[in-house]
């Protein structure tokens, strides 16, 4: 733990100036573990995980529940301590205690659109809070910025004076994105941002993220369990299984030629609209109902 | 539409339901009908607010206290029920169906398991009660079932309490308990939504097995069209409490959707085998319960909608037996004039 | 779609808002939230009476008038007179002054202390939380009334010691309540979102925790005022509370007790009625508020 505690102190190895093709975010050999109740052994949630996100890249991090994908995401934004390894952003090593400058660079959105906004706060106040914290904008300027943000996430400006209660899941998720983007981060960590949304709505959010990358050059670490969406959105994919990143490949390659067994299992398990019907149980696995 | 009620394990006809929200009666379901043949798996598909879970709960008699069924009847295993009745006798008859004729599997397995009884015993009890086995044979069978639903170390887990198991494991225990009695009708409400895809695959295999080998009928409520495509024979698509499209032949809908909503829903479902630059997204969002209007509920978001879509109730225009399409301007129909297989046809 | 989504749907459409009331009220009353208005109205009347006591009271509440002792209800003496010839109506009105003032003031301090400790305890957890909760356990280990009476006994009679005694004992309930709410909030994603975007801890606690937990505390405060009225009246009834001749419902009831056998019910009945009126008003108000605040969410 001590290794990462020197907050934002430049580390010798990252002294070289960030070149054009240097990654925006680099995690190297990150280990994260938790103490378990009633057990001396620690639970290793993430083991020696390394991943990179380049400028204006959308990188997928795919895994099932308990794979450690969200834990790694939380570590990247500084919500979770790491045991060892390094999280580097723009060539600077980030400690657990983040400066305002560190926070400005990386923002995060979450899965639950009903939990990620303060139910008591109007949207304008929620945006203003973070704008005031990180920029010198005040008064009218904040209102202007809020209006811009609403346009950016394709929401009517009238939303600003409402509270989350009456809003749909898709609208809330757009607000969460607006909030994250309000201070112009370079990297957005999106933890299952569409998992809780209806199919017809999730497409809109996925498209919005894709637009943001194209229009403002936003880099995105897209965490999901849904490979179909990852294929549409991402340039490259990291597959994480029980804390280990088992495969890191460009999207096109991974889907056509998965190398790790786990990726293959995962790909074959995805239900398909036009795929063959699910087969019954394998031979010798009959239900064998017994009656007297 | 009258249905010959012999043989069908489940018929639901003209189910309408109102919810009391703050003293106002709001129509949550309007004239929902479908039936299941023996050994058939029907997908009941819809997004949030479509009324799919309410439909299932209406069948089971497990509605929230502010819900009132305004019309509808159902037939389960030859017994007929007038769903508008609320008297004690009627409630008892419905309650007797649950667990005996109808097995139920819900999305949240935690709620359905008794927290202070080891999971194994909950299966054993279900097994012993339904199959008339001895305790010992029942335990052995419970172990077998647990392995079958993909619990690898069943012997270790059989004496665990629900809180000691993960969500996925609890769901499998639920399924094991539900299928123990070789039920002829299984109602599922998003049973795999909270599970990982690899687990989901095993559970779907299990359902397929139950249907193929035991001729159990399955009513599968979900938002996931791909799961329906993998598992079901027939499909009913709900939107804002109304049946939009329904067919006894699933592929007929999936390969040739006639209702604009079904088409849009299929179109917006991401497909891992299809590389797309942009996903299709349906404009707008579903109207809330209190904002529902006359006419087609999908009309405000529909690109085919015209003025006549916004009044009255929309008839079935499919013209094919076993198929329902409640739309005046179907996909692929001529741009103006009478739609194919029009109202008179 | 996940569990959260299902839960959200359940919240918005399927489940009716839970309306468990402390006071029974017919359905039509609950539907329009009449409890809130009736409660507010009833309490309002009592508060107005307390504020404008000198204008409302037809007689001086403290001057004895032996010539007019124990008079029955009449136009001049709406509630009759007591054994010393003082107008009961005037005394009840002035009693509202002393009792309501202490009851309401004695809610504010525990409210603020409990809110602060509860939020900090719930948000940080750890050793601070452990100490707070053990302290709370110690306070709750004693019956509420016994502890208050013991403290008042130590500090002597009077409004100030009642106020301090109530504060010492009843902040615990607020702290417990708020701590529970804060622990739920701590795991909400919007709190993580705030942390991730660099909002300071103070900012998170003040701008997000306080508004989210305060409504529960306010609802509880309503029933707490009822409790306080009970405490003050009981203490005064026992002779530990407000010192005579200051009018107070508790000492009035205590004084009237010995005349009950003689058929003079007014001395006890009317102050008791005032206590019931106030308690009922606050209960209605509490229920109404619960309902109102839940809808606003």
UniProtKB/TrEMBL annotation, chain A:
UniProt cross-references to SMART domains, sorted A to Z: AAA (SM00382)
Chain positions covered by the region annotation Disordered = 1-22
* Keyword annotations from UniProtKB, A to Z: ATP-binding, Nucleotide-binding, Transport
Q: Low complexity composition bias: which ranges?
A: 7-22
Q: Per the database record, which ranges form the ABC transporter domain?
A: 25-267
The record's similarity note reads:
Belongs to the ABC transporter superfamily.
What the entry lists under Pfam families is as follows: ABC_tran, oligo_HPY
Q: Name one GO molecular function term.
A: ATP hydrolysis activity
Organism listed in the record: Actinocatenispora comari
What biological-process terms (Gene Ontology) are attached? peptide transport; transmembrane transport
Is Protein transport set as a keyword in this record? no
Q: Keyword Transport on this protein?
A: yes
Q: What protein name applies here? A: ABC transporter domain-containing protein
UniProtKB/TrEMBL annotation, chain B:
Which GO cellular component terms are attached?
Answer: plasma membrane
Q: Which UniProt keywords apply?
A: ATP-binding, Cell membrane, Membrane, Nucleotide-binding, Transport
Short name of any one Pfam family annotated for the protein = oligo_HPY
Give residue ranges for domain ABC transporter.
10-265
Q: A Gene Ontology molecular-function term?
A: ATP hydrolysis activity
Q: Does the keyword Ion transport apply?
A: no
Q: Name one GO biological process term.
A: peptide transport
The UniProt entry, under CDD domains, shows: ABC_NikE_OppD_transporters (cd03257)
Its placement in the membrane is given as: Peripheral membrane protein
Location of this chain's protein in the cell: Cell membrane
Entry superkingdom: Bacteria
* The keyword rRNA processing is assigned to this record: no
Give the chief site where it resides.
membrane
PANTHER family listed in its UniProt record = DIPEPTIDE TRANSPORT ATP-BINDING PROTEIN DPPD, OLIGOPEPTIDE TRANSPORT ATP-BINDING PROTEIN APPD
Q: Which family does it belong to?
A: Belongs to the ABC transporter superfamily.
Enumerate the NCBIfam families for this protein: oligo_HPY
Protein name as it appears in the record:
ABC di/oligopeptide transporter ATPase
Q: Which organism is it from?
A: Actinocatenispora comari
UniProtKB/TrEMBL annotation, chain C:
Residues forming the ABC transmembrane type-1 domain are 96-286
Alphabetized, the UniProt keywords read:
Cell membrane, Membrane, Transmembrane, Transmembrane helix, Transport
SUPFAM superfamilies per record: MetI-like
Please give the biological process terms from Gene Ontology that the record holds: transmembrane transport
What topology does the record note for this protein and the membrane?
Multi-pass membrane protein
Q: Does the keyword Membrane apply?
A: yes
| Name of this protein | Nickel ABC transporter permease
In its UniProt entry, the species of origin is given as Actinocatenispora comari
Q: What is the lineage of its organism?
A: Bacteria, Bacillati, Actinomycetota, Actinomycetes, Micromonosporales
């Amino acid at each position: 733990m001590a290794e990462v505690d020197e907050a934002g102190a430049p580390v010798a190895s990252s002294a070289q100036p960030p070149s054009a093709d240097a990654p925006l975010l680099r995690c190297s050999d990150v280990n994260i573990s938790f103490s378990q109740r009633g057990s001396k052994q620690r639970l290793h949630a993430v083991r020696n995980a390394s991943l990179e996100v380049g400028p204006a890249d959308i990188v997928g991090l795919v895994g099932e529940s308990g794979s450690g994908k969200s834990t790694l995401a939380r570590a990247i934004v500084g919500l979770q301590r790491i045991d060892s390894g390094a999280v580097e952003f723009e060539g600077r090593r980030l400690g657990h205690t983040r400066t305002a400058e560190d926070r400005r660079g990386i923002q995060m959105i979450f899965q639950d659109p009903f939990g990620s906004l303060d139910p008591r706060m109007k949207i304008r106040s929620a945006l203003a809070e973070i704008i005031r914290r990180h920029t010198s904008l005040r008064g009218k300027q904040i209102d202007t910025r809020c209006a811009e943000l609403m346009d950016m996430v394709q929401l009517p400006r009238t939303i600003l004076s409402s509270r989350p209660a009456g809003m749909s899941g898709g609208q809330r998720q757009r607000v969460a994105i607006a909030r994250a983007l309000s201070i112009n981060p370079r990297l957005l960590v999106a933890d299952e941002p569409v998992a809780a949304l209806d199919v017809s709505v999730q497409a809109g959010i996925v498209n919005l993220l894709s637009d943001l990358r194209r229009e403002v050059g936003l880099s995105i670490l897209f965490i999901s369990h849904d490979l179909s969406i990852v294929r549409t959105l991402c340039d490259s994919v990291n597959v994480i299984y029980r804390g280990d990143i088992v495969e890191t490949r460009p999207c096109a390659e991974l889907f056509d030629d998965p190398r790790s067994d786990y990726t293959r299992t995962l790909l074959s398990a995805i239900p398909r609209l036009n795929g063959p019907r699910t087969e019954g149980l394998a031979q010798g696995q009959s239900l064998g109902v017994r009656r007297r | 539409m009258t249905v010959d009620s012999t043989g069908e394990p489940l018929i639901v006809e003209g189910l309408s339901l109102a919810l009391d929200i703050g003293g106002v009666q709001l129509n949550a379901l309007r004239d929902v009908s479908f039936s299941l043949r023996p050994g058939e798996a029907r997908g009941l598909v819809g997004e949030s607010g479509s009324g799919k879970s309410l439909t299932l709960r209406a069948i089971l008699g497990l509605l929230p206290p502010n819900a009132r069924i305004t019309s509808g009847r159902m037939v389960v295993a030859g017994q007929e029920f007038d769903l508008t009745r609320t008297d004690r006798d009627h409630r008892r008859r419905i309650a007797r169906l649950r667990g005996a004729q109808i097995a139920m599997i819900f999305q949240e397995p935690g709620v359905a398991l008794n927290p202070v009884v080891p999971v194994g015993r909950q299966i054993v009890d279900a097994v012993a009660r339904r199959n008339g086995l001895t305790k010992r044979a029942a335990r052995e069978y419970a172990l077998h079932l647990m392995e079958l639903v993909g619990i690898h170390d069943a012997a270790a887990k059989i004496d665990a309490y629900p809180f000691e198991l993960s969500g996925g494991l609890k769901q499998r225990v639920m399924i094991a308990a539900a299928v123990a009695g070789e039920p002829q009708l299984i109602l599922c409400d998003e049973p795999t939504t909270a599970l990982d895809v690899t687990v989901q695959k095993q559970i779907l295999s299990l359902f397929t097995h139950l249907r193929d080998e035991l001729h159990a009928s399955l009513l599968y409520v979900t938002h996931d069209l791909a799961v329906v495509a993998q598992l079901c024979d027939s499909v009913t698509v709900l939107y804002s409490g109304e049946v939009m499209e329904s067919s006894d032949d699933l592929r007929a809908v999936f390969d040739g959707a006639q209702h604009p909503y079904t088409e849009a829903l299929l179109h917006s479902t991401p497909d891992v085998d299809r590389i797309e630059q942009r996903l299709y997204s349906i404009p707008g969002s579903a109207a809330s319960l209190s904002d529902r209007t006359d006419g087609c509920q999908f009309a405000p978001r529909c690109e085919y909608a015209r003025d006549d879509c916004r009044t009255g109730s929309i008839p079935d225009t499919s013209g094919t037996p076993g198929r329902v399409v409640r739309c005046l301007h179907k996909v692929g129909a001529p741009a103006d004039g009478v739609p194919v297989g029009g109202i008179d046809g | 779609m996940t569990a959260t989504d299902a839960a959200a749907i359940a919240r918005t459409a399927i489940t009716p808002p839970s309306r468990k009331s402390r006071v029974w009220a017919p359905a039509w009353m609950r539907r329009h939230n009449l409890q809130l208005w009736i409660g507010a109205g009833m309490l309002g009347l009592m508060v107005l009476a307390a504020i404008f006591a000198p204008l409302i009271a037809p007689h001086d509440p403290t001057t004895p008038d032996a010539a007019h002792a124990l008079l029955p209800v009449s136009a001049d003496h709406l509630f009759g007179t007591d054994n010393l010839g003082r107008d009961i109506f005037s005394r009840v009105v002035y009693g509202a002054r002393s009792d309501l003032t202490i009851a309401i003031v004695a809610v504010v301090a525990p409210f603020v202390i409990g809110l602060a400790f509860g939020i900090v305890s719930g948000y940080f957890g750890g050793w601070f939380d452990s100490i707070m909760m053990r302290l709370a356990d110690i306070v709750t280990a004693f019956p509420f009334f016994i502890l208050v009476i013991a403290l008042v006994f130590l500090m002597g009679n009077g409004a100030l010691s009642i106020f301090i005694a109530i504060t010492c004992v009843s902040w615990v309930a607020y702290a417990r309540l708020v701590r529970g709410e804060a622990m739920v909030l701590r795991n909400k994603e919007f709190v993580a979102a705030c942390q991730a975007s660099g909002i300071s801890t103070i900012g998170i606690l003040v701008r997000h925790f306080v508004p989210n937990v305060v409504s529960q505390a306010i609802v509880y405060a309503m029933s707490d005022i009822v409790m306080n009225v009970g405490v003050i009246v009981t203490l005064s009834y026992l002779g530990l509370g407000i010192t005579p001749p200051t009018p107070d419902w508790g000492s009035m009831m205590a004084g009237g007790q010995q005349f009950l056998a003689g058929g003079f019910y007014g001395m006890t009945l009317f102050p008791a009625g005032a206590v019931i009126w106030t308690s009922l008003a606050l209960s209605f108000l509490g229920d109404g508020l619960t309902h109102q605040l839940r809808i606003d969410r």
